[in-house]
UniProtKB/TrEMBL annotation:
UniProt-listed GO biological process terms: lipid metabolic process
Organism from which the protein derives: Phoxinus phoxinus
Domain Fucosyltransferase C-terminal: 204-377
Sorted UniProt keywords: Disulfide bond, Glycoprotein, Glycosyltransferase, Golgi apparatus, Lipid metabolism, Membrane, Signal-anchor, Transferase, Transmembrane, Transmembrane helix
One Pfam family cited in the UniProt record for this chain: Glyco_tran_10_N
Protein name according to UniProt: Fucosyltransferase
Length: 380
């Protein structure tokens, strides 16, 4: 009897010992019950990403799948929502927008937008608008960046209209601009196939020949010089602050749609810098006359038959003669609207689209990307 009891005792001790060893091998203590923040699991990718930031004058891509998996595992164990979180650090130009429209407007799901800076340590991405960055970076995030987190540089102004900051290098992981070579490319508008077979080839009634709305006037701009010569050969209805003829947002559509031609002249000329000055007239049934990058660049975004480029003519006088010809020949004029039979022009939603598409990009792409020389890329 004593022998049996001894055997049972030693077996029990052995079982307890094995369980204890397994417990200390696999148990990870949590301080959540004390309301302390969870301690992230250590991983080697954090050092890899940090080292990539220190490498000058290049863009580094480092596989960072382990970082994202580790973070998701931690979040799952704590019952945290697995949506990708994008923190809007500052509202672009102070313009706020609805944070819950990614799914309904862009069919983007699994993204959570927030402007709550207390979510910094949980956010997968931080959207930072260039126009709101102080010159000394004093309003940039000060907390250490989690290794899985990506900072997105957003800018829709051209290099000519963007104040360059020499200390922006080695800060950002992704770019969100109008340029085609951005990580997240957000143009000022889009031409898309109209669903449901609905045609948009109706042309609004016209009672004006050529129109132009401008407030930002600079006599040294190329568009100002071209306008000065063009107006000598054709009548142009002008509006805006510069011409002491302001129009309200409510009357803007009525004015533009009533013009046969609209001067879609950009304030600076850069590749891909094609703004709402083009897409607004297209959507309102007016033929845009463009001054900006070469025609070939425009045709990467819209049909070549939808617009008139100033470079198609040897002089402003020749352009004026062509516009007068179209005014007298309705069949020729209507050829600029054939694209509307199957396509539609869509304007973009400033800020919201950048946030939604940046969040979706981060959700879909797990590689770690570092933009070491932002200044050379954008202003070079």
């Amino acid at each position: 009897m004593e022998t049996q009891n001894s055997s049972r005792f030693f077996i029990a001790v052995a079982v307890i010992t094995v369980c204890s060893i397994m417990f200390y091998m696999y148990f990870e203590p949590s301080l959540n019950w004390l309301n302390y923040p969870a301690v992230p699991k250590p991983n080697v990718c954090g050092n890899i990403c940090s080292n990539a930031l220190k490498r000058p004058n290049q863009i580094q891509i480092v596989n960072n799948n382990n970082c994202m998996v580790t973070q998701k595992e931690t979040a799952s164990s704590q019952g945290v929502d697995l949506d990708t979180i994008l923190l809007i650090w500052t509202w672009p130009f102070g313009q706020q927008f609805d944070l819950g429209l990614c799914s309904s407007m862009y069919d983007i799901h699994g993204c959570h937008l927030t402007d709550d800076r207390s979510q910094f340590n949980r956010a997968h991405g931080i959207l930072i608008h260039h126009g709101d960055i102080n010159g000394d970076l004093s309003n940039m995030p000060k907390l250490p960046r989690p290794p899985f987190q990506k900072w997105v540089w957003m800018n829709m102004e051209s290099p000519s209209n963007s104040g360059q900051r020499s200390n922006l290098n080695n800060l950002f992981n992704l770019t969100a601009t109008y340029r085609q070579d951005s990580d997240i490319m957000v143009p000022y508008g889009r031409i898309s196939v109209e669903s449901g077979g609905k045609k948009h080839d109706e042309i609004p009634h016209k009672n004006k020949l050529v129109c132009w709305i401008v407030s930002n006037w600079n006599s040294f701009h190329e568009r100002s010089k071209y306008y000065a010569e063009l107006t000598e050969h054709i009548s142009i209805e002008t509006y805006g602050h510069h011409f002491n003829r302001r129009i309200s947002d409510q009357h803007y559509s009525d004015v533009v749609s009533s013009c046969k031609f609209y001067l879609s002249f950009e304030n600076s000329i850069h590749k891909d810098y094609i703004t709402e000055k083009l897409y607004n007239p297209l959507s309102l049934g007016t033929v845009p006359v463009v001054l900006g990058p070469p025609r070939k660049n425009y045709e990467e975004f819209i049909p070549g038959s939808a617009f008139i480029h100033v470079h198609d003519f040897t002089s402003p006088k020749e352009l004026a003669e062509h516009l007068k010809l179209l005014d007298q020949n309705d069949d020729l004029y209507r050829q600029y609207f054939t694209w509307r039979e199957h396509l539609v022009a869509n304007e973009f939603c400033f800020g919201l689209e950048h946030a939604c598409r940046a969040c979706d990009h981060i959700r879909r792409n797990k590689n770690y990307r570092v933009v070491n020389d932002l200044n050379s890329w954008y202003w070079g």
